[in-house]
Each structure stands twice: as structure tokens, then as C-alpha cells.
# Entry
Amino acid sequence: MINKDVPELQSIWDEARVSIEQGDYDKAIETYRYILIRYSDYPIAVEYANAYLGDIFLTLRQLSAAENHIKKAISLEPDKPSYRYILGFIYSIEQRWNDAILQFEKAVEKEPGNGEYLRGLGWAIHGSGDVAKGLSYLEKAHHLQPANANILTDLAVAHLSSLNIEEASEYAEKAVRIDPTNAVAQDVLKKVLSFGKGFRQRGMITEKASTKPSAYTDTHFIYRFKVSLRDRPDIWRIIDIKGNQMLSSLHKAVFKAFDRFEEHQYSFFLSNNYYDKETEFTSPGSDTSGKRKLATRIRIDSLALYGGPKFLYLFDYGDEWWHEVELIGVTKKVTRASYPRVVKKQGKPPPQHPKD
# Structure
């Protein structure tokens, strides 16, 4: 379409395409930026260049630039579903789930039979905490594209987050069979198998978790965590918490369990790696940019713990109280009791502010 109207764009567009195929994203970015300047009065060229830049910056995980460019493309063509999908993908990475859902819904509205768009919508809904509904959309995506390794991998991770080990393993194994070169699928399969082996050996799951809504509103999945001081592993607390409670509620329970009295900022690192920004969830007010993921917005039962049952918790960025948090059990229980609750303690915690 562009080339018929402006023939000289053919060589420029081909140059950018070749750069992308060769992985030379810097050159592709330079080419598309040239188009934005040279053909600023040609709306179609501006639209396409911005769309490609948005996609490239998304690939490079430069999310602010990606959002900026894809929004410019949307302003010129608001009904194009692929643009909505890219913006939804950006929001999903940032775990801005409600924003992501809105964009994916617009994409699915235009192309309801597109498995990739349904995959994005299902993952965003799952991430927002509606596990059953999110899985239903992922299953619809799988039905439309049964050989899509990315959909299968998402299904594996989603099932594992609900501790459905058998289903997670089945989907992950199928993803690797379909696409043996898919590094993400291979990594997920390894972690699913490792995670499942550890759970079975220790009998951590007393009843198979179900992603279907319970018929009884008082039925809950109770997650049991062991929280230990990193430098003093002999000092620990066992804490039970409902799966539908937020990660910030776990912080409050740990705060109380270790006899602390003065609140400070905190972070959870779900990969179990120190200062891993990709898996960090922080306290409200710890970042003025609004880009960091908040512990107040993610439910316990939607934590991506497929990296293993252990993760890190940092309380007070000044004094740096590091804790190891380990998921040691999940039970299905009918209860109206208040959670979270401390069920066992060992060791006297050190004072929150040690004397020099």
C-alpha cells in the first residue's frame, strides 16, 4: 500500500526489514526514525513506522519507548487489532493488568478467532487474579491454535501457579515437543518438573488444587510459608495465608510475626535473586515513576513461583533485613477464620533497630 503511493519507500522499507531479520535493531530503528522525519506529512508511513518501532522497542524491553510509538500508531489507526495487542503486551509486562485487559479485549473484539490475541487476554486476566476465567481464555486460544508453543507454555505456567502439577507438566512437555528450540518452553518444563518433584517428595499438596470456582464461598486454598531471617535461619515463622489475599498481606504478617513496630518500604523478589527487578514487587510509595510492580496488586495464588518454592523478602532498604520465604504447603480448607495467621515460631527476633 505504501509503495504504490510513494515508490521510493520500497528500498527504505526493505532495508529496515532486512535489518530486523538480521537482528540489527539499531539500524532498523534508525531507518524508521528517518521515515518519520522524511515522510512526516504521509500518515500511512508515519503510522507504520511508529508501529514497527513500538514492536522493536517491545522486543528490546524498552517499554516506555514502545508504549510511546505504538500509541502514536493507534492514534492514526485506532481499530487495528495488532496495535492493541502490542500495547496490551507492554502493559502485561508491566503488570498493569486492567490496562492490558482493555487493550486485548479491543483486539479480540476485532478478531475473535485470533488465538494469539486470546492468549494475551487470558494471561492478563489470570495475572489480575481471576485464575479460572484467565485459564478459560487460554484454553480457547489453545483450541484455536493447538500447535502454538507459546500458548502451551502460558498454560503450563498458569496451571503451575495453581499447583496443578500434572496439567502444568503435560502442557510444558507438549510445548517442547512442538518447538524444541523454544528456550522459554524448555526453561518452564525444567522448572515444572523440579517444582513438582520437590512437592511430591515432601507431600506438600494435600489435595489437588482446582482452578474452577468453588460452590462454597467459605472454601479457600491456604498457602503455608516458612519465613526465615537470611542471616539467622534458626529464627523463623510459619505463616498461613489465603490464596485470594494480596502479597502485601504476607508482608503485614511477617512484620507482626517478627515483632516490628516501625513500617518501612519493602520488596519481594520472586526469582529468589537479590535485586531482580523483573520479579520484584514493592510496597506502595517506594517508586515515584509508577513503573514498579506493587505487592498490593498481586494475589498469593497468582504468584509466578515456577522458579521454585523459595523467594526473597527485603524489609527496610536502610537496615536491609533479608528473609527467605519458602512455600511449604497448600491445603484446601473450608473456613471462615481470619488470615493471615502465624501458626508456629522459632527463635527470638533481633530488635528492629539494633544499637550501634
Summary: The chain has two domains: 2-202, 219-346. Residues 91 and 100 are 5 Å apart (CA to CA).
